[in-house]
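hi! just following up on the protien thing from before. the input was this:
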Amino acid sequence: MDYLIPSSTHLKYFTGLDIENIVMFRDTIYTYDLNRKLVEHRYRGKVENMDRLFQDIRGKDIAAPLRDMNARLYLKISKHANRIEDCTDEFYSIRMRKDGNELKKISKASREALRIMDRLVSRLDSTMTEREVEEELMRMIIPRESAFRPIIASIRNARFSHYQSRGIRIGRGVLIDFGIVYRGYRSDITETVLLQDDPKLETKYRLLRSIFKEIVDSIRPGMLASDLDRVFRRAYRRNNLNLPPHSIGHGIGMDVHEYPILSKDSNHVLLDTAITIEPGYYTSSYGMRYERDVLIYSDGVEVLDI
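and the predicted 3d structure came back as:
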């Protein structure tokens, strides 16, 4: 079985190449004429035209990360290859275990995001719209790269866990979910900022923060992700909260969502890896969430927070 890897974070992880419209098969990079000089400049191995790829894979059994392959390329390859197997899970499993340099990059991305969050929060005003908050945030992120399009939602609209900002005033508060990229690695943090006195909302947010602390305090290097999920579910039951529509967190790295998977059925081992923990609470009239990045080393756990 030979591996075929299209342009993706997988290709960047294995080769360092971050170039669109290229494919690696065995040790050869295939590209179009438009990209050829750039690829030859950055890659010391063999470079061929994309048309040659379909000759070289004819009749062969291939493994490829199908989640990162567009339909057009898949259809072309399937006409020539004998068989295509999905190796997405294999690649993400390899990337789940991170070395010290990778964890350091995630740490820097997270701490810089926290500094930006502090600056943004200090400038918030209840008369601002969601869109104005997002625009202000994007100005602060420049010249860095945003890890994903930020989620900026008034307290009422934060009941939708994935929401895009509109021209609506934030009023009593706002949920801010964003991250930045540092040397190819991403962060992901969330803060719910209450701008008006509201004892009910303040109490619920303190409860979420306490659940966050309980969960991160339970993390031990080498524990199973399913065991961490049990801690999360137990904490919600004990506090009479409905479970959020999302998991308690996710792996993070070159992609904002990657392995380990944090779920009740996950057998992923939490060791030398990076995750987010994001307890949330959502009702029919409002929502809130708190999220921070967590590094799990072989000898300890680091919660990235200022």
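Residues 100-122 form the longest helix (23 residues).
The chain has two domains: 2-94, 100-123+179-304.
cheers
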